[in-house]
Design goal:
TIM Barrel; 14 helices; 2 domains; 13% strand; 322 residues; 45% helix; two-stranded parallel sheet
């Protein structure tokens, strides 16, 4: 059955027809010139765009949201490309290809990162771990002992209340005796507002990913309001007051909740997305599901043709009910 799903063209064609009325929202983060772990290479991304152009109707998230809001017909076989965080490598490698193939997309940016007043906490962890000479294998924090590797630390941080997460990274920096740069190293550099303006003028929606990329499920309502509302104000100040959409940082069930959804809605965003797929797809308001765009060619074809969507429906997969 697996080989039938992954390799059979007739099955892909059938899946595409069965899911033709439900848009597929893709999720990306970082891009690279050549093959590199954790990044989508520009050659692979170009192949993806060619495949989308041939088989689907590409659309930005704001355009999909406004069609949905106004109850207007949505084209069949819509695919939405979304990109998170705000890295400069998006401007360097993804944007020229999106422009070349005239494919719209949505780029969710963390505004403090774009303002150069901070950089993203996962990158700080990566920087610390890649520059240490320590022989230690674990770190203790707040009564918890964690392995000294990115996977374990990332899992810990994703489940910490935001202020504790920031204290943990400070503790990690002191333990490893490494001073974090004020701004990100070139590998983790952000776009500028001028680059985002150029992208917006060429069919890329600039959406919000908060001010500082916290887990909104781990902050107070007051802080959530600031992160969600002020980031929109900053974007509109730089790029114009137009309709925009939102992306929950980290995007897992514990990174948002029904109250956070209400804040996003009340702030004026037209839609919001998570960072996981399940059977709900677009049925949960302000929590539309997304599929990873970082997989291999077989995985990518399964996603855009609707095979993964069908699998989640048949298995009745539910990651969360909000």
């Amino acid at each position: 059955m697996k080989s039938l799903i992954t390799k059979s063209y007739p099955f892909l064609k059938l899946a595409k027809w069965l899911t033709r009325n439900t848009p597929k929202i893709m999720m990306y983060h970082s891009f690279s010139d050549a093959e590199k772990e954790g990044y989508v290479s520009k050659a692979h991304f170009e192949w993806q765009l060619q495949t989308i152009k041939k088989n689907c109707v590409p659309m930005s998230l704001i355009d999909l949201a406004e069609l949905n809001e106004n109850k207007k017909p949505i084209p069949k076989n819509v695919v939405v490309i979304t990109i998170d965080d705000g890295y400069k490598n998006v401007f360097d490698y993804a944007f020229p290809l999106l422009k070349k193939y005239q494919i719209p997309a949505t780029f969710f940016v963390t505004t403090n990162f774009i303002d150069q007043t901070d950089w993203l906490w996962p990158d700080k962890v990566k920087y610390l771990l890649s520059n240490t000479q320590t022989q230690e294998t674990h770190i203790e924090f707040d009564g918890t002992k964690t392995e000294l590797n990115f996977g374990a630390i990332n899992h810990l941080c994703l489940n910490l209340e935001n202020n504790k997460k920031l204290k943990f990274i400070e503790h990690l920096s002191k333990m490893l005796d490494i001073t974090l740069p004020v701004g990100p190293p070139d590998e983790f550099a952000s776009c500028t507002w001028q680059q985002l303006e150029e992208m917006q003028l060429n069919g890329i929606e600039i959406g919000s990913h908060t001010l500082s990329h916290p887990s909104l499920g781990q902050v107070s309502d007051e802080q959530a309001n600031v992160e969600i509302g002020d980031s929109l104000t900053v974007i509109n100040t730089h790029l114009g007051n137009i309709p925009r959409t939102f992306c929950y940082p980290n995007g897992q069930p514990n990174d948002y909740n029904p109250n956070v959804i209400k804040i996003v809605n009340a702030t004026g965003y037209k839609a919001a997305v998570t960072a996981f797929p399940d059977k709900h797809v677009l049925t949960k308001e302000f929590a539309w599901r997304r599929y990873s765009g970082a997989g291999n060619e077989i995985h990518f074809k399964k996603v855009i043709h609707g095979v993964e969507m069908i699998e989640y429906q048949l298995k009745k997969t539910v990651v969360c009910d909000y």
